[in-house]
Design brief:
Radius of gyration: 22 Å
Oligomer: single chain
Largest sheet: 7 strands, antiparallel
Strand content: 15-25%
Number of strands: 24
Number of helices: 14
Strand order of the largest sheet: 16-14-1-2-19-20-21
Structural class: alpha+beta
Distance between the termini: 34 Å
Shape: globular
């Protein structure tokens, strides 16, 4: 596998849409890092997300104080919860005690999406960061908060770390059955690396090892209650992922493949890449074929190394998309959405790489134990596609946000020359340049800079972006503000036909259509990966609840 780097390539810009967090986390335990710190990355990959750096100041709160909750994905107001007597300073996804949290959405069992309550996954992250002094306390708060206030989102994988350790916690709501969520958290062994990318990864887990594994009391009994796990089956054989988020073609090819690309680059085992090729290609989807949760790297990994891994596009691997006709003359790894499409009677996919144009912001958390927590915790923050991001350092004790990264300075529908998000998007979109983008740029040149800003807003990252109307949800003016309408168009019929002619079955979906349950999970996985498109949003409710229906697939 070739090392990933900053690329100069063309990108066919067309209208597509995607809201939500089909994200990637790459995780390095303290014993595997070059400086002994916990390191992990997070990309908030969303075409509707406007990249800003959030800030919650520390505070003391009177008895009876309330905290307002807005759904992170939809921007819709959900209600109020009791405020804690004391809350800690939070900058982005890092608090003053050196605790950081990231996530990726896996969706999971379609009957468990959404549910009763007030907390979505984004609010759960920030409420916890305002209250937790270390990673283990954060895990406990995830459990107690969802038990008290419910959980309304789809299945999520969370990275929870401090300077001493890092954990992977996977959670899914109880849907129509009851209030709350089931979850399991596994500590990444010191000296190992891990990752997750829109596919639940924890399979079997130890039931009597609280130092290394914690879980909700009903994680197994709830599965028995709703018929996912036989009452007579042995608890020790229970697999969280295989029951709550069964593997599908897209779960392997478009999700776990991102973790595979990271593991293959750093693995101590030189045969790792080839050993799991058939799995990430979607050819072998058995539970036994899946990758380990964590591996030992061949060398120590630095924060800068992780920034480079965030720029990965499968270069030099069997999934490298830069060599077929879809890459056009410049050999681009980028594709205009949708992420799945049809030609004739068959379904095909675009590769979902780590570095992606549909990104609002990203970070690398570097949690250093040899310094006081307010400066030991470091958030390397960037906006837009991680491939082109310049990462800016912010300590956990930071109490002010620069204007260029602040809420209220432009938004998803309003261009601002003072906004870091629009500055980086402007540069990146000209790197993605093709004839269509040239025509738009020419129009802007002939007119005025205001028109240029309007064009950037309307056609950023290969989308058609517009307003949802005068009552569009706006997160209460925080977390990037207004939520736009984001639509995808994809390519022409003739272009898809040419891709199929050139690549044969390389991008073809391979799920067995004789198993309806598997196809329902595949549809859910595709909806997670294309979350926020106008088609994927049909039937969706605040917090990610949705009916079982067709995934966002353009038919040609």
């Amino acid at each position: 596998m070739r090392p990933a780097g900053v690329l100069a390539f063309a990108f066919g810009l067309g209208g597509c849409a995607w809201r939500g967090r089909a994200c990637t986390n790459l995780i390095v335990s303290p014993g595997a890092s070059a400086d002994g710190s916990t390191i992990f990355s997070y990309t908030a990959d969303s075409g509707a997300l406007y990249g800003t750096l959030g800030h919650y100041p520390a505070g003391k709160h009177a008895l009876g104080s309330k905290r307002k909750i807005w759904d992170w994905d939809s921007g819709i107001y959900l209600g109020e919860i009791d405020e804690a007597p004391e809350t800690f300073n939070v900058i982005g996804n890092l608090n003053e005690h050196g605790v950081a949290i990231g996530e990726t959405t896996f969706g999971g069992n379609v009957t468990l999406a959404g549910g009763e309550g007030l907390l979505d996954y984004g609010s759960l992250i920030w409420v916890t960061l305002q209250r937790a002094r270390d990673a283990r306390e954060a895990i406990g708060l995830f459990g107690s908060l969802t038990s008290e206030y419910g959980y309304v989102s789809e299945g999520e994988s969370f990275t929870i770390g401090d300077a001493k350790e890092v954990w992977l916690l996977e959670m899914i709501g109880k849907g129509k059955y009851e209030k709350g969520a089931v979850w399991v958290a596994v500590r990444i062994p010191d000296g190992h690396v891990s990752g997750h990318a829109n596919q639940a990864r924890i399979q079997r887990f130890p039931l009597n090892d609280p130092e290394n594994c914690m879980y909700s009391p009903d994680v197994i009994s709830f599965a028995k209650k709703i018929g996912l796990w036989g009452a007579s089956r042995v608890d020790a054989e229970f697999s969280f992922s295989d029951l709550y988020d069964p593997i599908t073609f897209s779960g392997a090819r478009q999700s776990d493949a991102r973790v595979w690309s990271f593991f293959a680059s750093v693995a101590e085992d030189p045969h790792f890449e080839k050993a799991y090729e058939n799995y990430v290609l979607g050819r072998n989807l058995t539970a036994a074929a899946r990758m380990p949760l964590h591996i030992k790297p061949k060398a120590k990994i630095s924060a800068t190394d992780i920034m480079m891994h965030m720029r990965n596009h499968y270069e030099g691997t069997v999934l490298d998309p830069s060599h077929d006709v879809g890459a056009q003359a410049s050999g681009s790894p980028y594709r205009t959405r949708p992420i799945a499409w049809k030609h004739g009677n068959n379904s095909y996919v675009n590769e979902r790489t780590v570095g992606t144009q549909q990104a609002g912001w990203n970070f690398v958390a570097q949690l250093r134990g040899h310094l006081p927590a307010p400066i030991g915790g470091l958030l390397w923050f960037g906006v837009d596609d991680a491939t082109f991001s310049v990462h800016m350092p912010f300590h956990g004790g930071t109490t002010r946000v620069p204007k260029s990264l602040a809420d209220g300075n432009g938004d998803a529908l309003n261009f601002s020359y003072d906004s870091a998000f629009w500055a980086f998007n402007t540069v990146a979109n000209f790197v993605y340049l093709t004839d269509l983008a040239e025509r738009r740029a020419d129009e802007a040149t002939k007119s005025e800079f205001q028109l240029f800003g309007e064009l950037m807003v309307r056609s950023r990252d290969g989308f058609q972006i517009s307003s949802q109307g005068p009552n569009a949800p706006d997160h209460g003016g925080h977390q990037g503000g207004i939520v736009p309408k984001v639509e995808e168009v994809g390519y022409s019929d003739s272009w898809y036909a040419r891709i199929v002619q050139d690549t044969k079955d390389h991008y073809k979906m391979a799920d067995d259509r004789t198993h309806p349950d598997l196809m329902a999970h595949q549809a859910m996985k595709l909806r997670v990966l294309a979350k926020g498109t106008t088609s994927a949003l049909r039937g969706a409710a605040p917090g990610g609840a949705a009916g079982v229906g067709a995934a966002s697939i353009v038919v040609v």
